[in-house]
Each structure stands twice: as C-alpha cells, then as structure tokens.
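Progress note, sequence design subtask.
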C-alpha cells in the first residue's frame, strides 16, 4: 500500500469514487472538475513520492506533487523557489541557487548589460552566453553563430570521474556549478534540455575514455525535463554507455541546484539512491497519450532542431517512404542504408518478403565492404501493423533493442487484407508507424511500390501527406537513380546514381551469389566490358545508318528515353564507339564500335527476329525516315545484303547471311565475376 504523499492523494480521491485498474494504476471522477462523473481522471503511482495524473476530458496533466497541491495536501520537504524571477545582481542569483558568489566569479561570470537588459555574462567552450536578470524572456541568449558545447568538464570534474564517481548530466550551467560545489561530477550541454548531437556524443566518449563511468541523467522536474532525461538515456544506451535517468522528486520546476540546496553535503549520496525513471513515459500525458500538446508560439525556438540519420534523406524520429517499381533495387538500397547505420547504431530490419534471400545479400555486402553486420537485427516475416495484438507484441519484443531506425519491407506485406487506396486503412497504417516511432523513439523507413504508371507511390495520398521524407528509386538502363520526392523543412537532396554490382564468392565451401549497391562512379566501364542493353541498341541502330543519326532520330528508333540517351551517348563517345564531328552533326558509329558489335562496314548488322517480306518489301519503305522507329527496334530485319544485291528484301523463310549472329545469342553482360556485371535480381 502506498505511503507518504501518494497515500494522502489516494485517500483524498476516495471522495471521487476511486477505483484501482492495476498495479499503480487508478481511475476516478475528476477532483478538478466539479460535478465530474465520467471516471475520466487517471493516476499513475510510481512510488510513495512520484507519479502523474491525466484528466482525459480537460487534457490537464501534472506530477503527483502537482495534484497534491491542488488537493491542498501538505508535501513534506523544502518547497522549490521560482528561479524565473528577477534578480538584483550576481549575489542574488547565486544565493537563489545555493552557490557562493565566488564560485560564479571563478567560473568567469560577471554582471553586464546586454541588449539594454541586465545580465550575467559567462564563457563557454564555443563562445559567450548571457543569463538575463530582469525576469523577462528569453532568460538566456548566446552570441551569434553559437554552437552547443559541453560545460563543466574541468580538471577537478575529470579527477572525480577518475576516482570512480558517476558522471551526472543535468540541465543548465548554474545547476552544473551548484552540483560541483557539493562534490558531484556534473556537466551539461549548453542551450537547454535536448538530445545530444553526434559530435558532442563523440566528444563525450573521448572524454570518458576506454573505461567510462556510470552516468546519471538528472534533468529538471517537469514533463520536458523527464522527456529529455529519457531521450538522452536512450542515446547513451545506444553508445553502449551505462546510464540511468532519475527523477529528483522535487515537484514541478525543481532542478539539480534545488536538489543540492535540499541535501547539501549529502547530495551525492542521495542522488545515487534516487529511484530510476522508467524510459516509457507515464507523466507527460498530452504528447505521450494523445500524440499532441500545446505550447506558446514563443517557445517554438526551444524545440530541438531537425536531426538526420542520413543527411537530407532520412530524418531522425521521422517517417520516410522509399518507393519505386518492382526490380528497381529498393531492398538493396534499404539494406545498404541499414548496414551502414548499423556500424554505429542498432537497426531493426523487418524482412516481410523474400526474407531468406537476405542471407546472401548481407553476406555480399559484408564481403564487398569488408565490414561485419554491426548492430543489425532482422525480423524474419512481416508484422501485421494493422492488427493491434501483432503490433503490441512487436513493440514489446523490441524495447530492449532501442533501434535508431526500423525498416518495414514492404508496406503491402505489413497490411495484408487492408486497402492501400482507402483513406481509413492508410490512416491506420500511418498511425501504426507513429506508434513505432514514439514507443521505440526511432525513425521508420517504409519500402513501398509505385503505381502502374511507375511515377508515384501506390495508394492513398494520405501516405505522402504524413511522411517526413520520400525517396524515389528507379532503374535507368544500368543505373539506379535515387532522387528526393519530398523533404519536409529542408532542401531536396541532390539526385545520385548507383549500380548493382554482382558478387560471386564462397563461404565455407558454399557458393554465394548476390549483389550490392555501389556508387555509380565507382564502377568504371572500359571498352572490354559488356555493353548495357540500351548502349547496344544505340550502337546497332547507328551501325545501320551510313550517314549517322541525330539524338531525336536515335531516341525514336530505339525507344530509349531522350533524357537517358544523352548519358548513353556521352559514355559511348568516351569508349570511342561513337563520334560526332560537331555539336550539330549527327552521331556515327566508329570502326571500334563496329568491331565491338562484331560487324564490319559492309555487312552492317543482323537482327534477332526477322520480319516477313510483307513488312519490308521495298527500298522506298526501308529508306523512309518516318519509319525510323520501326527500323530501330531490336526485332527489325537486316536489309543491307538485299539492298547491296538489288533485292527488295528477304523472302519468306530466307534469313539472309547464314553466318549472321543474332542479338539474343550474344551475352549482353559479362560473367558473374565481372565488376560491371549487373545482377538479374
């Protein structure tokens, strides 16, 4: 049975038809709304002095102490002073935080006027900051271009850590100095309660060395502080640092400086004895329970900036959609993302289709990149995200992993039986992704298909509206094009090009054949490498045109898209298979190009499928430019020998030169071991 403040609160709620729903969970009519009879008021008790309430009707929320105060219950202990008031100077500010004025002065703090406001100026590693004394907002200001930095890692702090004391991360420079005055190895990041940026995390690991101490995360006693404590603790866990978040137990507004004023020389011991704050929030009601909360617009500047897992492409704690047509390489790209991220952070990959092929794909990636699997975790089989039981089981099973990102491959396999075109069903899928994002504090990457036109993502437009980033992947001849289809609050990332590089190798006498995604500029084609299908189409068309052809004529004859043709012609010119006398001249095949095709200047080119004489019976028909598109197709006949002999075309059953080699008998790509070989996956 709870004691202390919790017991007093429960006793008071007996007058409001209190009922117990479970261990530490209570429900009653609201004591804050006269006449309430809906049992829409819930209370969570963590221990005798810690808990949270939430009024589901009004949206009101707060800590156990907040509720006790509203019920006129006396809380034992020292009340927390409002430190957001005006101060007369450095001495007044120091006294309000339990610090001797000399401590601030030795740390470089002094009184000044900043922007016509009285302030305390103090130095940090990356520049000057000011704490205003007039009680007005903003309370803090940094110099222009300021970058957040660590504060408090002095020689004495590092000495305490070397002696085995835990590192205490708190909020604010003043709390850091107050704790250090009482022998606590405290530090903070300047600029408020936010996540630890990647560069500062790396700096922290360097400072702590190979044998890092335990870390206590002790943020302010309010919903923002507790959320920050949970977030930072999870970040530290991902870096394999032992950390625990604690609740200072001071009610709303208390901080580490207040805690030290209460316990004085016992502060360090009391701090280590505090109960651990659970990493799943129970006291931040609006944003955790409803997914929304209300703040004044003036406080928007205090929200954390956008962070990126993959700069410009995958935002941290956002929803990203990777979509493209079948066979474009979506899963290869997603796996490339996953394994690169997993070298540093946990990644959870949900393989919903073709799951057994990932054994070869992961092995090929590791072989090519000369790296291990890292912190990649695979979920074999598709979790049905539209089914609450399956989703809840998935979330429960992966809380301990604390992934930086969850990859869902694919959307269709994770919402079996649902309608992608339905606004309701798509909304439910998006909500499931939001639940994953909030519960696991991670980003979500969803792999999806395009519609029949191959231009846009398949299904209801609600998906595009809810996503933070969208990445489109398409195949363009031998290239894989990766481009931004949507980016919230940032510039679209530059389009980039990749290729699938086939891999063939042995592991423990087992042949592994797969492919890996590589940057296109890392695979350089030489004249001896196989031609791509579109390169061969272009060369064969030009081999049949004695006077060459323009770009438009080549595109019409070969059906190669004009935007792709430019790149193909540039590559063929570099290989010296095609030439152009001037920018306005037609393109012509070179002798090297003919040799590459295996044809000479007189023989021209044979075609793989012969048309009937009915479709190619006159020289006039063959020379008409308007039929160039028909003549440029891979399945057109070779008419060069008949033209040379004065024939009107091949007769039925006559395939011309019996020694001619057909295209479909020629290998379009090299062997499986060739670096330029494109895997047929």
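Output:
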């Amino acid at each position: 049975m709870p004691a202390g403040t919790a017991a007093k609160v429960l006793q008071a709620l007996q007058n409001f038809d209190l009922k117990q729903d479970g261990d530490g969970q209570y429900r009653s009519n609201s004591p804050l709304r006269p006449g309430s009879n809906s049992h829409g008021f819930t209370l969570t008790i963590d221990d005798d002095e810690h808990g949270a309430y939430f009024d589901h009707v009004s949206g009101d929320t707060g800590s156990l102490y907040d509720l006790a105060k509203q019920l006129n219950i006396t809380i034992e202990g020292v009340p927390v002073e409002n430190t957001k008031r005006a101060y007369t100077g450095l001495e007044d500010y120091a006294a309000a935080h339990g610090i001797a004025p000399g401590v601030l002065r030795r740390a470089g703090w002094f009184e000044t006027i900043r922007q016509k406001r009285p302030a305390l100026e103090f130095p940090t590693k990356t520049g000057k900051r000011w704490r205003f004394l007039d009680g007005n907002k903003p309370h803090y200001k940094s110099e222009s271009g300021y970058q957040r930095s660590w504060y408090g890692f002095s020689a004495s702090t590092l000495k305490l850590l070397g002696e085995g004391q835990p590192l205490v991360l708190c909020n604010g420079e003043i709390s850091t100095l107050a704790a250090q005055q009482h022998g606590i190895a405290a530090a903070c990041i300047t600029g408020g309660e936010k996540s630890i940026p990647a560069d500062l995390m790396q700096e922290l690991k360097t400072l702590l060395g190979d044998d890092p101490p335990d870390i206590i995360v002790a943020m302010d006693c309010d919903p923002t502080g507790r959320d920050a404590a949970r977030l930072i603790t999870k970040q530290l866990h991902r870096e394999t640092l032992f950390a625990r978040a604690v609740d200072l137990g001071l009610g709303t507004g208390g901080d580490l400086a207040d805690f030290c004023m209460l316990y004085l020389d016992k502060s360090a011991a009391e701090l280590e004895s505090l109960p651990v704050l659970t990493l799943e929030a129970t006291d931040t009601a609006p944003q955790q329970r409803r997914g929304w909360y209300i703040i004044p617009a003036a406080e928007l500047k205090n929200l954390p900036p956008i962070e990126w897992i993959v700069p410009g492409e995958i935002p941290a704690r956002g929803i990203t959609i990777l979509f493209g047509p079948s066979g474009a390489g979506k899963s290869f790209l997603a796996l490339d993302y996953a394994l690169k991220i997993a070298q540093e952070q946990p990644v959870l990959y949900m393989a919903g289709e073709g799951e057994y092929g990932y054994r070869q794909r992961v092995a090929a990636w590791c072989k090519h990149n000369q790296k291990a699997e890292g912190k990649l975790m695979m979920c074999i089989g598709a979790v049905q995200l539209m089914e609450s039981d399956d989703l809840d089981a998935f979330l429960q099973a992966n809380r301990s992993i604390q992934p930086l990102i969850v990859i869902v491959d694919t959307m269709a396999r994770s919402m079996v039986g649902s309608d992608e075109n339905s606004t309701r069903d798509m909304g439910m899928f998006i909500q499931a992704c939001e639940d994953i994002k909030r519960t696991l504090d991670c980003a979500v990457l969803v792999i999806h298909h395009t519609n029949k036109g191959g231009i846009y993502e398949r299904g209801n437009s609600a998906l595009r509206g809810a996503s933070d980033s969208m990445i489109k992947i398409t195949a363009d001849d031998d290239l894989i094009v990766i481009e931004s289809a949507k980016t919230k609050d940032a510039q679209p990332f530059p389009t980039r090009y990749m290729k699938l590089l086939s891999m063939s190798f042995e592991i423990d006498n087992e042949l592994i054949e797969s492919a890996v995604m590589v940057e296109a500029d890392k695979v350089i084609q030489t004249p001896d490498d196989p031609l791509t299908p579109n390169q061969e189409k272009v060369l064969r068309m030009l081999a049949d045109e004695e006077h060459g052809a323009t770009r438009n004529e080549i595109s019409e004859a070969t059906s190669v898209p004009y935007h792709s043709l430019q790149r193909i012609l540039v590559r063929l010119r570099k290989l010296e298979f095609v030439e152009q006398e001037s920018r306005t001249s037609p393109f012509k095949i070179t002798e090297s190009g003919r040799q590459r095709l295996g044809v000479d200047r007189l023989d021209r080119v044979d075609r793989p499928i012969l048309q009937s004489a009915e479709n190619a019976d006159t020289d006039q028909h063959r020379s008409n430019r308007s039929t160039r598109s028909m003549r440029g197709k891979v399945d057109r006949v070779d008419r060069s020998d008949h033209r040379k002999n004065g024939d009107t075309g091949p007769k039925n059953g006559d395939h011309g030169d019996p020694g001619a080699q057909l295209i479909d008998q020629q290998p379009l790509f090299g062997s499986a071991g060739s670096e330029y070989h494109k895997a047929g996956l």
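The chain has a mean pLDDT of 80. Work on this subtask will continue into the next period as scheduled.
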